[in-house]
Specification:
The complex is a heterodimer of chains A (337) and B (299). By secondary structure, chain A is mainly α. Helices cover 68% and strands 1% of the residues of chain A. Chain A has a domain of 202 residues: MetI-like (MetI-like fold, Orthogonal Bundle). Chain B is mainly alpha-helical and 299 residues long. In chain B, helix 2 packs across helix 15 and helix 12 packs across helix 16. The chains are: A mainly alpha (337), B mainly alpha (299). Chains A and B meet through helix 1, helix 3, helix 4, helix 5 and helix 6 of A and helix 1, helix 2, helix 3, helix 5 and helix 6 of B.
Chain lengths: 337, 299
């Protein structure tokens, strides 16, 4: 017991306190940060991220924007894909399900670095994805050199070639509105694809475990009452697996704010900072630019964001444990009343 | 805990004995089901086929036919160059050392701690358990700078100790073991106690043998976790002689290779780094599944 408490305490609790101290200083990595020689700057590292106009805020806000778009696509995509795969693998009629279950789960257990190398090749200019697009008659982009935002591209497709002055002229927190509304860049899309591909398998297993606890008699009852497949799924199965659905969504939210390995291996934040994320920015600021105080401040803000999502999850779970929602789904089961 | 639940079978009969007239629709559904399975089977497995095939292609062939599963001609020089031209053997050795020690440490410490939390009455037990659950909620990526600070302060930055010691115990493992020990009845241990065995003796000769499935799960998760661990090595060492496989691989990709894209070589090195966990996965699949579902029980 004692060694475990010691290791966890030494490498988790104490470090957090030390990092908080460092985030209030201008330590450059030389010597110990806990001596009087290190300049104490108070909350300056934090204010530079939010209120002071400059490169630090611009980079930080860019990384937040990138991560928000990333989360907004990855979380729904991996949840829907995992649920679809689980429902199909759980289906009674199909054979060979064990094989496919293994196939879908396998990417989840491999090394994130090794898989990133594979996807670098798949999305290379002369790589497999562009070869596939070529067969379909589409001229694929230069994925990792393409910093154009997807929303900008969509607007371009609609004929909006020059950004409206109202959006480029004004802005908030160091970025123009036009930049805020860029959407994920083409390069980010390849990272999004990779992450959805690797995480769906794990979440599929969670859904599968939940689906197998849904009594089949409920489905039968819905069938006898004349509900079609979609209605049975929507009004019988889905409410039954709601706790798991919720768990998958929160684990997804927490995980997607931590994206790091893939960015490190595949893009290092490039092109034009469109794959920069707070986690990577924090690492780069501390270990490449040797501004440990600033890097620690970024990771504390990221910490607050993630803890925020965790607390919201706890709160909603507690609400759901009360009987607030139960009558609602009961009422919705077709033919129950 | 395998996914194929036995109770499925019991319900099978009444379901397939449902009234006729549904057969054509059932057939269509089956077809759609298989179509989805096969499509996503390809999506999830074909990248590995591409990886294997392209690692034994020549560089021009890999650039010209990236999708083809057939190398033409088969060219094994990339593997030769991985062994002779890169530090791959060194990374492999470092990875093996770190993985074996971390796995041993985790199995020993996590199971002892899990047992203590499940069975022993000691002051502050509740607080320790709450602390471990709290640690589970701390996102790993925000600990990069904190970990570096401690290693730096302890004077072990850039050493094997830095790579290994911080990973020796993990909260998730303690949690899994505590859950498991909670699930075995106390009566077995009480019988041993009446026979005069002490706590450690009971743990070693009675509890551990029963805990075999949980221990296997823990061993496999620890092996996989430490073999694939990347960000920790970034903040623990900077000397290339201490690089583990993921770190070396990342270094290789970010351009320490020199001319050309050299995709066959990179894919080959990534392939070699994937093989140990892949073999483990195929052999012990149900334990991986158990580990993945611990997340569900946790909440």
């Amino acid at each position: 017991m004692a060694p475990v408490v010691l290791i966890l305490g030494l490498f988790l609790l104490l470090p957090i306190l030390m990092a908080f101290w460092v985030s209030l200083t201008d330590w450059n990595g030389q010597g110990s940060p806990f001596t009087g020689d290190v300049p104490f700057v108070g909350v300056e590292n934090y204010t530079r991220l939010f209120t002071a106009d400059g490169l630090a805020r611009q980079d930080f806000m860019t990384s937040l924007r990138n991560n928000v778009y990333y989360v907004a696509i990855v979380v729904p995509a991996q949840t829907v894909l995992a649920l679809l795969l689980a429902v199909v693998v759980n289906s009674r009629m199909l054979k060979g399900k064990a094989f496919f279950r293994t196939a879908f789960y396998f990417p989840s257990v491999t090394s994130s670095v090794a898989i990133s190398v594979v996807f670098l090749f798949l999305f290379a200019n002369s790589g497999a994805v562009n070869a596939l697009l070529g067969i379909l008659g589409v001229d694929g982009p230069q994925w990792f050199a393409d910093s154009r935002g997807v929303l900008h591209l969509l607007l371009g497709g609609l004929g909006v070639d020059t950004p409206p002055a109202a959006l480029t002229g004004a802005g908030a927190l160091g970025l123009s509105w036009w930049d805020w509304l860029a959407g994920p860049s083409v390069a980010m899309c390849s990272i999004i694809t990779l992450v959805v591909w690797t995480t769906s398998g794990t979440f599929m297993l969670m859904f599968l475990a939940a689906l197998q606890n849904v009594p089949e008699t409920l489905d039968e009852a819905g069938r006898l009452d004349g509900a079609n497949r979609w209605q049975r799924f929507r009004h019988v199965t889905l409410p039954m697996i709601r706790p798991t659905l919720f768990l998958v969504l929160t684990l997804g939210l927490i995980g997607t704010w931590q994206v790091f390995d893939q960015v490190y291996v595949m893009s290092q934040g490039n092109p034009a900072k469109t794959t920069l994320t707070p986690a990577y920015l924090s690492y780069r600021t501390a270990f490449r630019d040797f501004e440990y105080g600033s890097g620690a401040a970024i990771s504390f803000v990221l910490f607050l964001i993630i803890i925020g999502f965790t607390l919201v999850q706890r709160q909603v779970l507690r609400d759901r444990d009360g009987d607030g929602r139960r009558p609602r789904w009961r009422r919705r089961v077709p033919g129950r009343r | 805990m395998t996914v194929a639940a036995p109770h499925r079978r019991e319900h099978r009969q009444p379901a397939s004995g449902a009234p006729g007239g549904r057969a054509p629709r059932g057939l269509a559904t089956t077809f759609v089901g298989y179509a989805i399975l096969v499509f996503f089977g390809l999506v999830f497995l074909y990248p590995f086929v591409i990886q294997i095939a392209n690692s034994v292609k020549t560089e021009p062939d890999a650039a010209a036919n990236p999708l083809s599963p057939v190398p033409d001609p088969v060219d094994l020089t990339s593997f030769q160059r991985i062994v002779e031209g890169t530090a791959f053997p060194l990374w492999l050795g470092n990875s093996l050392l770190v993985t074996v020690l971390v796995t041993l440490g985790r199995v020993l410490l996590d199971s002892l701690a899990g047992y203590a939390l499940a069975r022993l009455r000691f002051a502050g037990r509740g607080a320790v358990f709450a602390a471990i659950v709290a640690v589970l909620a701390v996102p790993g990526v925000v600990l990069l700078i904190p970990k570096f600070l401690v290693l730096n302060q302890l004077g072990i930055y850039n050493s094997y100790a830095a790579l290994i010691v911080p990973l020796l115990a993990d909260a998730a493992g303690v949690f899994i073991m505590k859950q498991f020990f909670d699930s075995i009845p106390r009566s077995v241990e009480e019988a041993a106690r009446i026979d005069g065995a002490g706590t450690f003796r009971i743990f070693r000769s009675v509890v551990l043998p029963m805990a075999k499935p949980a221990l296997i799960t823990l061993t496999i998760l620890s092996f996989q976790g430490s073999w694939n661990e990347f960000p920790h090595s970034l903040v623990a060492v900077q000397d290339p002689a201490l690089f583990t496989l993921p770190r070396g691989l990342a270094d290789l990709v970010s351009g320490s290779l020199g001319a050309g894209t050299q995709y066959p070589l990179k894919l080959g090195a990534a392939l070699l780094a994937t093989i140990p966990v892949a073999v483990l996965f195929v052999v012990f699949q149900r334990y991986f599944v158990r580990g993945a579902n611990e997340g569900v029980d946790k909440e």
